Amino acid sequence: MSIRRASVIAGLALLGLPATASAAPEWVTASNFAVPADDVSIGGGQAQTQVLYQDGGIATLAFLQIESISPTVQSTLHIGTIAPGGTYSEQLTIPSTEAGTPAGVQIAVAPDGAAVATWPELIGDTVAVPDRYRAAYRPAGSSAWEAPVTIATDTVVEKGISDLLTPAISANGTAAVGVQHFAPGESTGLHKRPNYRIDVAVHPAGASWQPAARISPVGKSATNLSLGFDAAGDLTAAYTVRYVEGSEESEDLRTVIVRDRPAASGVWGVEENINKEEIPWTAFAPYLGENESGDAVVTYQYADSSSDATWAATRQGPNGSWTTPAQLTSGGSAPTAAGVSPNGEAYVLYGFQGSSSGESCAGVERAQAGQSFSSERCLSPTGENAFDGSLAFLGNDAYFAWRSEVPGESQNASIQGARWGGASTLPDVARNLDTPGLDYGDPTLVSDDQGSLVAFYANPSGELRAAALDGGPPILLGASVPVTATVGRALAFSASFVDLWSGLGAGQPTWSFGDGSGPVAGATVTHTFTAPGVYTVTLGAADALGNAASATYGVTVTPASLSGPPPPSRRPVVTLHVPACPKKLSKKACKRFQASRAAWQTLTGRVTDPAPSSAIASVQVAVYLISGGRIEGLSGKRFRKTTKVKARATFVRAKVSGTRWSLRLPKLKPGTYTILVRAIDTAGRISATIVKTLQLH
What we know:
Elements: E1 12-13, E2 19-21, E3 26-27, E4 31-32, E5 45-54, E6 58-68, E7 74-82, E8 88-95, E9 101-102, E10 106-109, E11 115-122, E12 131-138, E13 149-153, E14 164-169, E15 175-183, E16 195-203, E17 213-214, E18 222-229, E19 235-244, E20 253-261, E21 272-273, E22 282-290, E23 296-303, E24 308-315, E25 326-327, E26 332-340, E27 346-353, E28 361-367, E29 385-394, E30 397-405, E31 413-420, E32 431-432, E33 444-447, E34 453-458, E35 464-470, E36 475-480, E37 484-486, E38 490-498, E39 510-512, E40 520-521, E41 524-528, E42 533-542, E43 548-558, E44 573-574, H1 587-594, E45 602-608, E46 616-627, E47 630-635, E48 638-641, H2 644-649, E49 650-653, E50 655-657, E51 660-664, E52 671-681, E53 690-696
Parallel strand pairs: 1-49, 37-43
Antiparallel strand pairs: 2-43, 3-35, 4-35, 5-6, 6-7, 7-8, 9-11, 10-11, 11-12, 12-13, 14-15, 15-16, 16-17, 18-19, 19-20, 20-21, 22-23, 23-24, 24-25, 26-27, 27-28, 29-30, 30-31, 31-32, 33-34, 34-35, 36-38, 38-41, 39-40, 39-42, 42-43, 44-45, 45-51, 46-47, 46-49, 46-52, 47-48, 50-51, 52-53
């Protein structure tokens, strides 16, 4: 997994992207994860906390603040972010109103920061009232959520109906929210039990919410929705449909249905009946896993009156056909999680119950792309029941977490985890991730998008716990490195790092100055260069487990005799070209073209060093956008939220070939751009800075 760094602060010339080196990931000691509701200044109790991450290790937190349950229900939904080394920043607040009271929250977050949140609202002041189902979307790169929308509303309450909300989001920012809720007046079965229906609303990236579409059949109860996206925004839904309504609810029979919604058409395809309708068999609890290439696995419990087992089917690519379902276990079992690695290997985690309690365990099977599943095997020690597992990937290595419990001893639980390396024939031996013997909640395993995985779960007191598999290096928050220096004059260097899980190692960070001197350690250090030249300064940091990150910076050192300002006649000269218009365009059309984003996608110009020449060391460019009061500055290969001061001091290197230079910019958005260009020769002389402001459409 690639590691992306925070932008560096003023006075820094970045020569290369930070390099990383990671040791084998290790589990660190579990600890409490502080959430804002633990702060008495917010007040009330905290419930249903979710933590998910985007690139750069930025966490999005969602939780429900419970102010009152009796005589009326009063709550507030909170969603905010925590940047590495930072504090919680609220982004979305939904309090109780006469229109509705938030009763839960679920979120999904894309690597670029796009996110979707969904929650039910009680209409009225008690729990026994109709509900409405709401959702909100956060665009990539934004701290503001769009106005919430209502996905569905129930005007009739049916006791015993469990309404469920399911969010999902693609790597390209397309989001979806599924609602399983009451469908009054549609029961066509002999015994007239109430039906569920499933509605799904989609929010394409850069657009707005589309009307919710019903994807389940009318008159048939549909439950247990699971959603999956590929990187292109193609959506897959898996759920169960009741095809026989027995005299008792335990006699109902269900089958697994899969439907696809290609991003290109935006239209739901036909139902695919995965396990068919075969009396007296019924399907329970389907789980869908999908990777960014569209490879997918669906697993479920399939049972009749005498036996039940875990079954699964796989698909290669978004347009592939589902394989014939395979029975994975010989004894009683139920799936708890499913996923597909980037290279297409499908994994199914399940709880196994043999003929006796001594055979119970958490089990797993793998199917390599296009092949059958492996034989059943236990991950956990036998003699322990496994509940509600979760799985996630680091590269092609699969990691699992689950709650284990000694049969008959509900207060004697433990949080366990294991790995199955993509290149390994067998999974590793399971281990306890926290102190065994406590009544823990079920774990959710998530990636922090910095090379680590985190299992989140509640302790017996309801506090959120985090057991981290640390495979990511420290994060660079900022650095100050001089661009130029003079022989014999001491320079100050400083940097700030943070590590999310295991902390910085001893003697970190470290500095190497590229002049033959030995490395030094410290957040702030000084160094004196003894000879002129262009030196590469390397800044590095490692955490307590040895996961390391580094960044390089260029420092041009001039002789003491040249310590004053360079003579203007000997400064480098740099120009910025106005894009040439295509042939045959009128003057008016040419002006429109030169005000377009396409014309300025690649910046070009010339650079020379008047005689006596010292040769051009670099051409440096700073670019920032002002749009709606928000400032985004070019940092590395992306535009990031910043301030005008930082943006004007954060330069990236252009490509220089002879007397020409060029710089390909990331995708541009409409707005007002400011471009700054300067050149530096090998003697440290800096050209006059070109400043150009453009209004691009």
